[in-house]
Amino acid sequence: MAAFCLSVLAAVGGQIIAGQKSLEPVPDKVVVLTFDDSVRSQFTNVRPLLKRLGFHATFFITEGFDFKTNKQDYMTWDQIKTLNDDGFEIGNHTRDHMGITEKTLPQVKEQLEAINEDCRKHDIPKPVSFAYPGNAFHVDALPILASMGIQFARRGGSPEYSYDEGGGVAYEPGKDHPLLIPTAGDARPTWTIADFKKALARAGKGTVPVIQFHGVPDHAHPWVNTPLERFTGYMQFLKNEGYQVLAMRDLSRFVDPSKKLADPEAIIRERIKMIHGE
User: Fold this and answer.
1) Any idea what the CATH number is for the domain that residue 174 is in?
2) How far apart are CA 68 and CA 48, in angstroms?
3) What value does the mean pLDDT of the chain take?
4) Is 148 helix (H, G, I), strand (E, B) or coil?
5) Partners of 90 in the beta sheet?
């Protein structure tokens, strides 16, 4: 027992305290896959491919658009439950796909609670990851998200890059606020394997590219459609190159989400100045 206590005390310098785990260094080949908007093809096409390749991913669920009546284009909650049972992460994307703006801030809690309640009804764990609908964010939403138990929140590639480009930057643990994680690449129907590789290449040492997909294919939102054949090529590239393919919640391996930054937008301003000279 004494030896055990000494070993615990010795581990304090290595950040292992009272059951806490030490953080891992970010691997050279790692990527986070995210899928937005509850699109049915994520279940029929994406799910079996990711399972076969042994990949993790986060599916951000919303009941927006015509989710409740259009089951040709959107998943059922039973299918979402199956994704969870398969080991994939179910994230929150608001009930109504509501953009996060100064005007909508009073509704954020209700919007998240609605998805949390649906998860509870289907024995799905309360989401700890969130994606900003339409990729728009407001910094005043951060304490609201934190109060709802959200540990990681993904934004788009904007404002560093315009939404239309589908580009972005890699997530820098310790510099990016965990509730403002940028997208490195937002897949477009015009993407080729070269564009996918470009998004991955935005990650340097110690950073993580987070890739944003919608439907594979996406008939309801053709501007963010990804053809299945091309998506299959992207995933096979990751497998062939030995990438660790993770969900958003897996970022806790590399960063402590409870450690927030005093100025959440400082790194964003720095990047904009570096990229655009503003």
Assistant:
1) 3.20.20.370
2) 24
3) 92
4) coil
5) 59
